[in-house]
Amino acid sequence: MSTLAHTMMTAAPSADSGLASSGELDRYPYAEAPAADRVGTPSWDGADPELGRVSRRAAGSRGRGLHGQLVQQLGQMIVSGDLGADRPLVPEEIGQRFEVSRTVVRESLRVLEAKGLVSARPNVGTRVRPVSDWNLLDPDIIEWRAFGPQRDDQRRELSELRWTIEPLAARLAAGHGREDVQQRLSDMVEIMGHAMGQGDALMFARADSEFHSLLIQIAGNRMLEHLSGIVSAALQVSGGPVTGCERPNEASLAHHGRIVDALAGGDGAAAEAAMRQLLTIHPEVERVVPAPREH
């Protein structure tokens, strides 16, 4: 076993031991202000009364401070439809509701504006933008959609997008056979096999994400490399299965191994075929893409 594989396996916690309890994950993430300092809560029609729910992944692992938490909260509310298109967002109300400063609200709205979720105009204020304006390739929006009412569409769209990206990346990567990269890919397959034997879905998912991200990065196409974050987000969202690799099994492990073997042999066609087989393991993918043809 290589040093990298051993380090990753010993460092990654098991699926049972490294996760917070359900109560901890769902806990309201904002610090409570003293009762005497609290300001009256404005009415946000259509929003959940608590306004404090966050995704399990966000609450459990992000740790970005008040600014990041507010971006998460407002982003999820917009994507879920709690704050619909053209809804005005009044910074003063947001600050009062979440007990954060004007600076935190202003910077959070700027982040959301960069993602296409809101727009700020003189004499109009800040308003929620329609879904047609959102940057749907933004990893955060991918995650938020995976938790919202569009999760089924998100699952299908991510599968379709990966189908267009990864087979080509696998073919191109066969022409860039650096030994260190080959070893890292082999390490990830070895870790996935170990994780499957241990029943450790978390370790399997981490190695799987590393494998696919690395494969795209070595394809030698900078535009494809720019999309590696999308594939990583697709593999990491926990709101439901979105790929053919979300459940550790012998079939997915075997296809990953075939990809590595094809890359080692410089066989782009075989690498592409193995990737197509990997992406068609589950029925929801087969409904949107044809099965690979045998040559």
TrEMBL record:
Residues 1-20 are annotated as: Disordered. Residues 64-131 form the HTH gntR-type domain. SMART domains: FCD, HTH_GNTR. Keywords: DNA-binding, Transcription, Transcription regulation. Gene3D superfamilies: GntR ligand-binding domain-like, Winged helix-like DNA-binding domain superfamily/Winged helix DNA-binding domain. The keyword Metal-binding does not apply. It holds the Pfam family GntR. It comes from the Bacteria. This is Sporulation transcriptional regulator WhiH. It comes from Streptomyces prasinosporus. The gene is whiH_1.
